[in-house]
Specification:
Elements: H1 2-9, H2 18-30, H3 32-39, E1 49-53, H4 63-80, E2 87-92, H5 98-111, E3 115-119, H6 125-134, E4 139-143, E5 152-158, H7 169-178, E6 194-197, H8 199-213, E7 225-228, H9 238-244, E8 250-252, H10 278-287, E9 291-295, E10 302-307, E11 313-315, H11 318-336, E12 342-347, H12 353-361, E13 364-368, H13 372-381, E14 386-392, E15 396-399, H14 408-424, H15 429-440, E16 442-451, H16 454-470, E17 475-476, E18 479-486, E19 491-494, E20 500-502, E21 511-515, E22 520-525, E23 531-540, H17 548-565
Parallel strand pairs: 2-3, 2-4, 3-6, 7-8, 7-9, 12-13, 12-14
Antiparallel strand pairs: 1-5, 4-5, 9-10, 10-11, 14-15, 16-23, 17-18, 18-19, 18-21, 19-20, 21-22, 22-23
Helix pairs in contact: 2-3, 4-5, 4-7, 8-9, 8-14, 11-12, 11-14, 11-15
Length: about 575
């Protein structure tokens, strides 16, 4: 506790604002637990940025923790590109304080002689990624906490290619930030270096989204969409992109259209949660809509619900939408003629069905650690290869490479194109998904996410993962474990033969078991929330579409059995 008190008292100097000092003095005098949570560690600038609860202290998001990030990044940019005019672009979402924090970040950059393009109002993360390249910037920042609860905010950093920072830049930037004290932050703005931007970038981004996500689908006039932005930024882009692509029957959920950091109509603004889309699904049932789309606050994730074989609106998961979007894009490329350099990509905890499709179409399949920055890095690392599309199980997808992060704007349009075209041809999005299962096998996944908050929660997560590794699973539902992939040691071991393979990905706290029947179980801590996540994937052959219901039920029962067996 002495070190915590020392850290807190260092914030009582004249460098810090009077209201900040007042709050800290209150914590010291009256709230020892709050003091501990605010100062027991430094909020880490991770390999993609920073996310945390807003408030005072070293373990919170505030003008000083973000100011230090920005000062370190400014130093690094000036050291790296000092012989040219350094430029950055900044966007922010609907979170509390996002606009004021974005202004503070802009001021620190400008105080360091860096030209800043600052969006005048909230904008989507994919537009920020796009703007980095469009404006020829050296870096981009977006102030967002994605789908975290209202008390959170965050700071994500993008590099010259429009993708999130990756090695070696991430480690070098972190080292620069960690070398600084708060007193090193230059807060005095050079306002002449800050330029507000809006419609000019919007126009080219909308045009690029339509160009990349539209495939001249039939049946647009007869296709009804219900859209909800869940109080987030996508209201600034998706309705307009759909309109420009020719969709006229778009119903926006007005109660959720107003950007609001409290997210008053949902428990969580996360399209992965069925409850988040309940209002939109209800509206879809009322008006007979074909599809529901909902996006998270910064518009990089999308949730889709479509009518199933019984005509009932059903929420799909991220693996399902990713599979069908990728299959559609592969088919379009095939019709034009493959050139032999195409690839699709996903992450190590997403459905193995993506690899089966890549094999069937004869294109390269690449897999990455969790996080879209790694997919963006693939595009940069293989400039002679053509990225078709790819995604991850957590409701993120990217169409082509004009945006270098998951992009709910273009992906929404792509989903509508697939569904409208299918309906015009007497099918549906859902039926096309089942047809894909017939072609490549029915893969079914389940995510078990356990929240463990605070200091004790972090220790509990750490111990759970140690236990999962030190007490290895030997069989799952009667199927023996064959491979254990340990991404911490970069070794995949066949426990039956003793064969070992090197995992050629950066080290990460992930452990994956694979059994004889192709069942996979992965465990990892979340990089953005106080959670530990277990991903289970299993599969079965599907001979014909008519068998889908029974085979799907069998796999559901198997997933439940695995969860019970693992005591999760």
């Amino acid at each position: 506790m002495d070190s915590i008190l020392t850290s807190a008292k260092s914030w009582l100097t004249d460098f810090f604002d009077p209201e900040i000092k007042k709050e800290i003095q209150h914590l010291i005098d009256k709230d020892s637990e709050g003091l501990k949570e605010s100062f027991y560690k430094d909020l880490e600038f991770g390999t993609g940025g920073m996310r945390g609860i807003m408030g005072v202290g070293t373990n919170r998001i505030n003008k000083y923790t973000l100011g230090k990030n920005t000062q370190g990044l400014s130093n690094y940019l000036n050291q790296t590109y000092g012989d040219e005019e350094v430029k950055v672009v900044i966007a922010y979402d609907c979170r509390h304080n996002s606009d004021t924090l974005a202004k503070t970040v802009a001021e620190v950059f400008s105080a360091n002689g860096i030209k800043v393009f600052l969006f005048s109002e909230l904008r989507t993360t994919p537009e920020l990624s796009f703007a980095v390249k469009y404006l020829n910037c050296h870096a981009g920042i977006v102030l967002t906490a994605s789908h975290n609860p209202p008390e959170y905010n965050g700071y994500k950093v993008y590099w010259t290619d429009g993708g999130q920072i990756v090695p070696p830049q991430d480690g070098e930037i972190i080292a620069e930030i960690n070398s600084l004290s708060f007193e090193d932050i230059k807060f005095k703005a050079n306002e002449t270096l800050i330029e507000l931007i809006d419609k000019e970038v919007d126009e080219v981004f909308f045009e690029a989204s339509v160009n990349n996500g539209s495939f001249n689908a039939k049946g647009k006039d007869d296709f009804k969409i219900v859209f909800t932005s869940l109080h987030g930024t996508s209201i600034t882009a998706i309705p307009e992109v759909l309109k420009r692509a020719g969709y006229k029957n778009v119903t926006v959920i007005e109660e959720q259209a107003e950007p609001d950091g409290n997210f008053p109509t949902v428990k969580s603004p996360n399209p992965e949660e069925p409850e988040a889309l309940s209002m939109a699904i209800q509206k879809a049932e009322e008006i007979g809509a074909d599809m529901v789309v909902g996006t998270d606050p910064d518009s990089d994730r999308l949730g889709i619900a479509v009518r199933n074989s019984e005509g009932i609106i059903e929420l799909l998961n991220g693996n399902q939408t990713m599979v069908l979007m990728t299959k559609f894009l592969l088919e379009k490329y095939k019709q034009k003629g493959f050139k032999g350099n195409e690839f699709i990509a996903t992450t190590i905890v997403s459905t193995p069905m993506m690899e089966q499709m890549a094999k069937a179409y004869g294109v390269e399949f690449k897999t990455a650690l969790t996080g879209f920055k790694w997919i963006g890095k693939m595009i940069k690392d293989f400039p002679d290869s053509q990225f078709i599309g790819g995604g991850e199980e957590s409701f993120g997808y990217m169409v082509g490479d004009f945006v270098r992060d998951k992009d709910a704007v273009t992906s929404t349009l792509l989903a509508c194109e697939i569904a409208a075209d299918a309906k015009a041809n007497g099918s549906s999005f859902y039926e096309e998904l089942i047809n894909a299962y017939v072609d490549y096998g029915l893969y079914k996944e389940k995510l078990i996410s356990l929240t463990k908050k605070g200091i004790s929660g972090a220790e509990e997560i750490k111990q759970m993962l140690i236990d999962f590794k030190e007490n290895p699973v030997k069989s799952v539902q009667g199927s023996k474990v064959v491979w254990i992939e340990d991404y911490n040691t970069s070794v995949a071991k066949n426990v039956q033969t003793g064969e070992e393979k090197t995992i050629n990905l950066p080290k990460s706290n992930v452990l994956i078991y694979e059994t004889e029947d192709g069942t996979r179980i992965a465990a990892r801590p979340s990089g953005t929330e106080p959670k530990v996540k277990f991903y289970i994937s299993t599969n079965a052959k599907l001979d014909k579409a008519a068998d889908y219901k029974s085979v799907n039920s069998q796999l559901e029962a198997k997933l439940d059995g695995i969860q019970s067996e693992l005591n999760l």
